[in-house]
Amino acid sequence: MNKKFICIEGNIGSGKTTLSNMLVEHFKAKLLLENFEENPYLKDFYKDTKKYALHVELSFLADRYQQQLAHINEDNVIVSDYLFDKSLIFAGINLQPAELKIFTAAFTVAKEYIRNPDIIIFLDAAEDLLKHNIKKRGRNFEENIPTAYLQKVTNAYHTYFKNNTHLYPIIWVNVNKYNVVGNEKHFNRLVNMIKSKTDNLIHYI
């Protein structure tokens, strides 16, 4: 397969990790998972967003950079449950202007060394489904995430992907209608699209 680096993106609770594992099994690929549990500031961030926002975003940036840099030259198929640019998307939501300026400078330097994906699957889910999935997986520090915050994240992803269609193919999945992690027919359709899409456009399902 000519897609060597597949990135899965979506809001909190959209099913990124589950789908990543399924694609790894299907393509016999290597899996890159975000190490969110190792971020020492994440739990504090959910308690005091303003105080810990820069801490949590820089920590995520450093971890994503180190992880992706370690695999940049591999020729095997890699499936990642995050896009490196996720760091900038969330920083734009969480940081104050002065903090964002600092963060963007660090991100821009790191980005120069990071491999671009060959294709992105964006899992777009309504907030009620996100809240359901968040509650179902039972991470205590996530259970009180406000719906308004999830909406901000969704809007930020929409803006990002609609402005980056010239960089790589994007498969935009309406998760409320297409259950790619629980319906074999829907999953197989997604796999076929991953194999066939080569133009740098958004393809909706």
Helix content: 40-55%
In total, how many domains does the architecture comprise? Answer: 1
**CATH homologous superfamily?**
P-loop containing nucleotide triphosphate hydrolases
> What's the CATH first level?
Alpha Beta
Low-confidence stretches: none
What is the CATH topology assignment?
A: Rossmann fold
Topology, element by element:
Layout: E1 5-10, H1 16-27, E2 30-32, H2 42-47, H3 49-69, E3 78-80, H4 86-94, H5 97-111, E4 119-124, H6 127-137, H7 147-162, E5 170-174, H8 184-196, E6 202-204
Parallel strand pairs: 1-3, 1-4, 2-3, 4-5, 5-6
Helix pairs in contact: 3-4, 3-5, 4-5, 4-7
Task: Give a description of the structure.
Helices cover 50% and strands 13% of the residues. It has 205 residues and is α/β, with parallel strands linked by helices. The protein has a single domain (5-204), classed as P-loop containing nucleotide triphosphate hydrolases (Rossmann fold, 3-Layer(aba) Sandwich). Strands 2-3-1-4-5-6 form a 6-stranded parallel sheet, with helices on both faces. β5 (170-174), α8 and β6 form a beta-alpha-beta unit. α3 runs parallel beside α5 (97-111) and α4 (86-94) packs antiparallel against α5. 31% of the residues are buried.
Characteristic key phrases:
205 residues, alpha/beta, Rossmann fold
Briefly say what this structure is:
This protein has 205 residues and is α/β, with parallel strands linked by helices.
